[in-house]
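Fold Annotation — chain and its backbone

Encoding — discrete vocabulary of local shapes
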Amino acid sequence: MTIQQLLKTAPVTTLLLASFIGLFVMQLVTGVDANNPSTEALVKWGANALPLTMMDDPWRLASSAFLHIGLMHLLFNGFAMYFFGQIAEPLFGSAKFLALFLLAAIGGNLLNNYVTWQSILDGTGQPGLSAGASGGIMGIGAALLIAALFKISVNGMVLNLKSLIFIMGINLVYGFAVPGIDNAGHIGGAITGLIIALAFAIGYRQRLAVAIQNAAIQQQRTFNAYQTNYSYSAHDNPSFNSQYSGQHDNQSPYDATSIDQSPHLNSDSTEQDTVLANNETNVSDINANNSAESVTANNSPLSNEAVHNSIEPKALKKPSIIWQLLPWLAMLLISIGFVWWWQDIHQQLLQVLKAIE
């Protein structure tokens, strides 16, 4: 994928990659070593350092996600961001994707500081530095795992769950096996991404259920409309009564010509009158029967139409706004929890410093 295509498909991913590279170039311009930057340089450029981050510089929780310790670190995280970002950003949306990355990075740094602080209290650890986008990237990867588990499609394609588990597993094992890797940051970022993605997946499922119900209602409306049109077409057929009556009008026994041919009554007149009377009765009966059948035939489609129209389909449903806001509500709650967590560690540090004094 070219840079133009990536910018169109995943603009936030492109900007994040540009910020990683731009910050690294700025370090090189100011004389920072490309492979072994000094502690002073990392602190200057915004690395996560427990005494600073948990006291007066909480902004380092986010700034350290854009800073990388050496060229190889930058290349590794840059490739991971490129791989995950072009899939995750179209799936979650640019705004949610950016919030997911930042919160996962902050969550990873907070867990790293908490573990470090606990080890200091136990006398088994000491303050250190951490930097890199690994926590945010692990959060994105974990979110994609949830998307694959819930079978959420990306541009019509479902993510491969086994492949994502394999990639995430390699990163975690690598973090445990290689010294100097901020594995607490990886785990904290992954947990944050899982929680946010669960909220997104639940909202997605609810909206999908409403969309399926609306599709069924629309299909029912289309079917009912077809039936109604069919019943109207029955009115276009000629009435059987009109055709039948027309044929008997031409053969009416009251034809004027037949009467004129009898200048006087003869012995057969009584029989003729009887025949005429019987024919009149038969024709009347036939016309009456045909009229009844015609009325029934003409009314039958109207009755069917009334039945069809009486079965009104349900109104289309609208997805509750709560399902659209659920991911943002989850991120708001996570942010509040992070503030509380930072305050807790901050107060513990203040108490220890006060006791030392």
Remarks:
- Residues 231-236, 238-310 have pLDDT under 50 and may be disordered.
- The first helix runs from residue 3 to 9.
- The beta strands are 48-49, 129-130, 153-154, 157-158.
